[in-house]
Amino acid sequence: MATNPKNAMLTPSYDVERIRQDFPILSEQVYDKPLVYFDSAASAQKPRAVIDAISNVYETQYANVHRGVHYMSQKATDAMEESRESVRTFINAADVREIIFVRGATEGINLVAHCWGRQNLSAGDEIIVSVMEHHSNIVPWQMIADQTGAVLKVIPIGDDGALDMDAYADLMSDKTKIVAITHISNALGTITPIAEIIRIAHERGVPVLVDGCQAAPHVALDMQALGADFYVFSGHKIYGPSGIGVLYGKAALLETMPPYQGGGEMIDVVTFEKTTYADLPFKFEAGTPHISGAIGMGAAIKYINGIGLENIAAHENDLLAYGTEKLSEINGLNLVGTAPEKAAILSFVLETVHPHDVGTILDREGIAVRTGHHCAQPVMDRFDIAATIRASIGMYNTREEIDVLVAGLGRVQEIFG
Amino acid sequence: MNDGLSDLYQEVILDHSRHPRNFGPAEDADRTARGNNPLCGDRVTVFLNLDGDEISDAQFDARGCAISLASASMMTEMIKGKSIEEAKVLFEKFHALVTGENGLGTGPDLAELETLSGVKDFPTRIKCATLAWHAMIAALDRADEDVKTE
User: Fold this and answer.
1) Are B5 and A364 inside 8 Å of each other by CB?
2) Residue A277 bridge partners (DSSP)
3) Is residue B11 part of a domain?
4) Are residues A318 and A204 located together in one domain of the fold?
5) At B72, which CATH number?
6) B41–A371 CB contact, under 8 Å
7) Domain count of the fold of chain B
C-alpha cells in the first residue's frame, strides 16, 4: 500500500508503513484477505517490541517480585518498577507511589468505588456519571450505591454526542460526593471537556474519577496539569498486554483509603492480633501481580513514546476526517456521535441493515469492526438504537483501509439490496 | 464469491426479515417470554396462545438482525397448530441444523427453516438464530425468570 501524499503532508514524520511492519498480526490473512483491523478501541494489536518484552521476561528475568533476595527476583522487581516509572512519566504523575497496577480500568474503577465509596458515601449522597459511560463506569457505582444508599445522577448529551455542560453544572450540588466520567466515549468518540469538568467539581471540593481507556492511546496525559483525583486506563488499549492496567490516584486520597484486597505484598506486619498495611502503591496490590504484563505495558509506553503521541493523534485525526467524509457519502448511513471534539471512533448505523449483519459481511471481507452496544447500553438507548457498527482507529490504520471499509459497506448494500 | 454469505443471506431470509410474519405484540397471549442477547442488545418477545396442548397462535415482537428476525418469523409460522411436544422436537431439530450437529438436523419437518442452515458456518450468529426459539421454549415451560405469564 502506498502512503497517501496528503497524509504524508499532514504528518511528515509519520511513516505508517514502517509502523505496520512493527505489528506482526497485521500481515495475517483473514479468509484469504488482508486483515483490516478497525477494532483497536476494544483492544489494540501489539508491536513486536511488546511481544519481545514479554518473552524476554520469561526467558531472562523472571521470578516473583518484591520477595526474594535472589538475583532473578531482584531483576524482575527492577524491571517491573521501571515500568511503573514509565507509567508515571507517561501520564506525568507527581509521584510513582500514585501508580497502582490493576488488572485493567474495570478493576481500577471497582477499587475506587469500593474503597473510596464505602468510606465516603452514605444515604442520599449523589454520584455523577454521564449517559455515555461504559458499563464499567456505571455498574461499580450502582453496586456501591446499593450498599450505601447513594444515588446516581446522569449528565445528558446532545444529539451530536457532546456532553451537556449546563446540565452538569446544574446536577452539581451539596449532595454530590464524586464525579465519575469518561475522557473519550468508547461508543461515540466524544472527547469530554475534562479539565473544565474537573474544575467545576473541584470548586465544590468534589473529587473526579476519569475513565481514560480511550484517551490514553490518543491524547497526551498530564495528571499534574489536569488535576484528576483518579484516572484509570488499560494496558491492552495502549498496545500492551491484557490483564494489566493502571489506577492513578492522588497520594493524599489513596492514603486515606482502606486496602482493596488482603493478601501478600500489601502488608507491613501481620499478626493474628493486628495487621498493618504496606505503603503506597503496594497497599493496593495484594498477591503476585501480573509481572510480565506490567513490563509489557512499559514496553508499549516506550514504543508509543518512540513514535510520539502527538504524531499518532495527528495521523488518527486525519483518518477520522477522511473516514467521516467517506462514510457520510454513503446513502442511508448515519454517523452516531458527531461532537465537534472527537477522537478515533466512527460509530454508525445503516437505515436498512442491522449492525450484526453488517459486521458478519465485513468480517468476510477481512474487516474487523465491533458491532453491538459497546458495553454502553444507556447511550444506545439515548439514541433509541440497539447497536452500532464501530470502526475504531489505531496508529497503524491507513486511508486505504478506510477505502476497503467503504467498499465492504457497498457489498453489504448489494446483499441487502 | 463463495464465502458463505449468499447461503446465509438467502432471499427467503431477507424477505422474512423485511416483512416479518406474525409480528407485533399480542395483548391476549396466554404465554409470553422475553429473550435478550446481551452480546448485541437484541431483544425478542414471543407471544403464544394455547388451546389445550396445541399452540393455536404465535406472534413475536423484536428488534434484531436479519437472522434473528427471519428465524423468529419462520418459527411463528411453523409452530402454529403444533402440539407443545412437537414444537419442542422442532426446536431440537432446528438447533441441530444451525449448530451443524449430525443426525437431527435433517428431515422434512424443518421445511423453510432449512434456509437457515447457512448459520452453522457463522458460529457467532447461532445465538441470533436461536434467540426466539429459546424464548418460545421458556414460554412453554414457564421456566425462565424472564417469562411473564399474564
Assistant:
1) yes
2) A267
3) yes
4) no
5) 3.90.1010.10
6) no
7) 1
* Total domains in the fold of chain A: 2
Judgement on whether residues A158 and A252 belong to the same structural domain of the protein: yes
C-alpha A290/C-alpha A70 separation (Å) is 20
Instruction: For chain B, say whether A354 makes contact (Cβ under 8 Å).
Output: yes
Least CA distance to A361: which residue of chain B? B5
A166 and A102 co-located in one domain:
yes
Closest-CA distance of chain B to residue A372, Å:
4
Domain with residue A160: its CATH number is 3.40.640.10
Alpha helices in A11-66 (DSSP H): 16-21, 48-60
Per residue in A201-225, pLDDT (tens digit) is 999 999 999 999 999 999 999 999 9
Tell me whether residue B150 is in a domain: no
By the 8 A CB rule, do B87 and B140 touch? yes
Residue entry with cell 531472562: A60
Domain that holds residue B101: 5-141
**Contact criterion met (CB < 8 Å) for A416 and B4:** no
Mean pLDDT of A385-407: 97
Full domain range(s) for residue A381: 5-47+308-416
For residue range A237-295, what is the model confidence (pLDDT) as tens digits?
A: 999 999 999 999 999 999 999 999 999 889 899 999 999 999 999 999 999 999 999 99
- Here the cell at position A411 is 457489498
Q: Is residue B62 part of a domain?
A: yes
DSSP letter for B144, please: S
A-B CB pairs within 8 A amount to: 53
Residue B98 lies in a domain: yes
Catalytic site residue A375? yes
Q: What is the mean pLDDT of residues A390-401?
A: 98
pLDDT of residue B37: 85
User: Mind telling me how many Å the CA of B91 is from chain A's nearest CA?
Assistant: 23
Chain B partners within 8 Å of A386 (Cβ): 40-43, 63-64
d(CA A39, CA B75): 34
A291-306: pLDDT as tens digits: 999 999 999 999 999 9
Instruction: Express each pLDDT in B74-117 by its tens digit.
Output: 999 999 999 999 999 999 999 999 998 866 545 558 889 999 99
Say whether both A64 and A19 belong to one domain.
no
Among chain A residues, the shortest Cα distance to B2 is held by: A364
**Partner residue opposite B65 with nearest CB, options A356, A364, A417:** A356
Cell of A331: 446513502
SS3 assignment, position A110 = helix
- Position A89 pLDDT exceeds 50: yes
Task: Find the catalytic residue in A8, A26, A220, A375.
Answer: A375
d(CA A262, CA A264): 7
Phi, psi at residue A381, to the nearest 5°? -60, -35
Closest CA–CA distance from residue B104 to any residue of chain A (Å): 27
The ipTM of this complex is 0.88
- Whole-number Å distance between alpha carbons of A206 and A131: 19
Query: Is there a contact between B40 and A415 if contact means CB atoms under 8 Å apart?
Result: no
A207 and A233 housed in the same domain: yes
